[in-house]
Design goal:
The structure is a homodimer of 459-residue chains.
Chain A: H1 4-14, E1 19-20, H2 23-28, H3 38-44, E2 51-53, H4 58-71, E3 75-78, E4 95-98, E5 105-109, E6 112-116, H5 121-130, E7 133-135, H6 147-153, H7 160-163, E8 174-178, E9 186-190, E10 206-216, E11 221-227, H8 230-241, E12 248-254, E13 274-280, H9 285-294, E14 298-304, H10 305-310, H11 323-332, E15 336-338, E16 341-342, H12 348-359, E17 366-372, E18 375-380, E19 383-385, H13 389-401, E20 405-406, H14 427-434, H15 454-457
Chain lengths: 459, 459
């Protein structure tokens, strides 16, 4: 609990910046989708901030951070709250900084945009499309996520099959960051400097603006292909994904045992069929049809992505992919959870097959094809039929022993698995510079120890 | 020599279809850029057709083919005549079929175009750009080449770093082909059926229309980076080419010993510096500058590609790349020639370095980075300081022994090297169907023997 006097002083200092104090509302905005993980659910479910601050401008963010410093208030920034790792959950009370009102587009030009961090992806994409562009990549939560939340809390998604991940060089051009100092500074990070805030969960400054490269707008087709066998579907996906001549935004393979949980889609296929879910440009359809046929598949859906996105009651295909697959499964069976694995680029499907043999129906397979550092491979967002935390740890360990890299989605720190045991860049050194008291999303950067405790600073 | 009576009958049968008979003009249009190769120059220099037919419509093409069948006249189709393998050189006289008047755009929609084969690439790109699109790939001869000539005689080029080659699945959607039969048929080949005419030098039918996927138009920057060392430049190019976050159209490495032959560019750099020649989207410039700096290079030119293309006296960077590098070198030294090699995708630069060590200044190195079957690698269009044909054969043999694949540019048949000893698809079977007399570009499909000789047919 934050000291009540400090809290009162903080609210007083905020002046007319909107604040939420209602405990139910505050609790709601202290949560994200961590409950996909039974481990995080146990650890984070009761965590809450004491208030939510809703700045409308960067100046109000700066003002909030100055007040937080003065009053010794922890600050956990939040976008759409669509993360699955408790990115936006305050571990040590204080304030949630809801950035969703900072949603202006600063400019769009030359295949780039500069926008405020709180802009929703769905709104951005609509405006970009009118100008001939679209987001290079977005999470399956496109309809509710913000661009700042995606960069600070995400890593890749729909589009990564072509553009790689957010941490691939060139996918974030610049970031404006407000520090937790007295007075707060407003920093402009450019190029690789943006690695300091990329996927740092807001621990290294409040991201207020972002400059990102765009993709030219395409009239994507939502395509579902049914296959009698999962590995057949996976092999088709790998071959398709390796075709430089076909424009792709999404290549997903879904195990037949997941399909009954996917509304609408389950009605398109026979029992036992596995699926490839694709977003393909119209110019690729002729070749796609040939590839599907050559691999023994059948196209069972061909729809306009954009139309599905904007039509009420209609669901774009991407909302069955990435971590929305898990969500769809959870709506049917609250006991399941998931993994986040990365198969090696050299012959990824051999290991996929091996893991399927090892785990069978305990881990219904779900693959997302993507580029990592320029190489094509697939990530597994396997469904896990959860039994105990010990067994979950064992499953992860067996994957790692077999050479499958795990980004553990059951850990709330940034350093979240074998592949990311260490912070990827000198985020900790930067945090000491920009957040010396450690008031930004405290507890998320595992080994960070502030030089002074916030309490020492509070008067 | 074609029988004069047959020729006269053929001209008579052509009616008002334009024909060129002036021997100088006919000789000119019987040639291409085979003279880059001293071997082909010796073999092809005296080859000539007896007339040139210039149809203006597909019906006139069909009419011409019907007349050619009837009169037993060989027909060698020609676009811009920019090939380097004698693709458009008639080995056995007869008619050159100049398709450059078939230059209409049939339609542009959904990221695709359907165009007549004789349309010039430069004209297409201009019109496409007004609609927000551009050609996915083009040869360095963009200003003079036709789309039909590129598909029938080329294989890859500027853009292949992103889109792969013309033979990668999806890069040709459909082709309309006029056969050499009585009566000629008009075939529509779709998808992989287009492999039957792709890079077949017009031996398997006269390509009259093509349907091709497009790339969204980008405001490409022409970038020249200078490096103190060739391998440093090559390593930079490989790292850059592997960045999915940077939109690229061209990644070329040029050895310092070639630079003095490159007008304009040579004035930008110090003696001994090697070059990376790039086309990069504006959104990639921030990251590019960082990569250049990290690799010890220096950006010495940053210009607008399109502006250079349309400004009189100005040269777009791509006219220093692919086989234009050879051309630039030949303008200074008529004794050089070139290789066309492909390095394996697994660690290509190790072999590049090995070949440099083996051959030194006998083969000034020039690399074009590209995707082949989805994998990133580089092709070498090495300059060869030519001495004898025996030594040239030895150079090729040493490359092949070391695992460098050679598409021999000193051979005029389609089957032109170790990597293409066999025809890639059943082009020969198809040729028997569509050209039973073997009158289409005879001699270019090495092992083809017609069932009946043309003479048997001529009355």
């Amino acid at each position: 609990m934050t000291d009540p006097d400090a809290l009162a002083a903080f609210v007083e200092a905020l002046g007319d910046i909107p604040v939420l104090l209602d405990p139910a509302l505050v609790k709601q905005r202290s949560q994200d989708f961590f409950w996909f993980s039974p481990v995080l659910k146990r650890q984070l479910n009761d965590m809450t901030a004491e208030l939510v601050v809703c700045p409308r401008t960067r100046d109000e963010v700066t003002h909030t951070m100055a007040a937080a410093w003065r009053c010794g208030i922890n600050v956990t920034p939040r976008g759409g709250g669509t993360g699955n790792h408790g990115q936006a959950v305050p571990l040590r009370g204080g304030a949630v900084l809801d950035l969703s009102r900072l949603d202006r587009i600063v400019w769009v030009r030359d295949g780039m945009m500069r926008v405020e961090a709180g802009a929703k992806l769905i709104d951005l994409d609509k405006i970009l499309r009118e100008r001939g562009w679209e987001l290079r990549m977005f999470p399956s939560t496109k309809r509710t996520a913000t661009i700042g939340g995606f960069v600070a809390g995400g890593s890749d998604g729909i589009g990564s099959i072509t553009w790689g991940g957010l941490r691939d060089a060139g996918n974030v051009i610049a970031a404006q960051v407000v520090t937790a100092e007295a007075p707060p500074r407003v920093l402009e990070l450019r190029g690789s400097e943006t690695d300091l805030i990329n996927h740092a969960y807001g621990t290294t400054g409040i991201v207020t603006e972002l400059e990102l490269p765009l993709a030219p707008a395409m009239q994507w087709r939502d395509i579902v292909v049914a296959f009698p066998d999962f590995m057949q579907a996976a092999r088709f996906c790998l071959v398709l994904a390796a075709c430089p001549g076909i424009d792709l935004k999404l290549v997903t393979t879904i195990d037949s045992t997941i399909v009954p949980s996917l509304e609408v889609l389950r009605e398109l296929v026979a029992v036992g069929e596995s699926l490839a879910l694709l977003m393909v440009a119209p110019s690729g359809m002729t070749t796609l049809a040939e590839l599907v046929s050559a691999h023994g598949g059948q196209i069972v859906l061909d729809a306009d992505t954009l139309k599905s996105e904007i039509t009420s009651g209609s669901v774009p295909l991407y909302e069955f992919t990435w971590n929305h697959t898990t969500l769809q499964m959870l709506t049917q069976d609250r006991t399941v959870t998931y993994l986040r694995s990365l198969f090696p680029a050299a012959d990824p499907l051999a290991l996929v097959e091996r893991m399927r043999t090892l785990f069978g129906d305990e881990l219904p397979m779900h693959l997302e094809f993507l580029r990592v550092g320029g190489a094509l491979t697939c990530a597994g967002l396997q469904i896990v039929r959860f039994t105990t935390e010990d067994r979950l740890a064992e499953i992860i360990s067996i994957h790692e022993q077999n050479g499958v890299s795990i980004s553990n989605p059951h850990v709330y720190t940034i350093e979240n698995g074998s592949g990311h045991k260490r912070l990827p860049v000198n985020q900790m050194g930067f945090k000491h510079e920009v957040d010396p008291l450690g008031i930004l999303n405290p507890g998320k950067m595992r080994d960070f120890v502030p030089v002074r405790a916030p309490a020492e600073n509070a008067e």
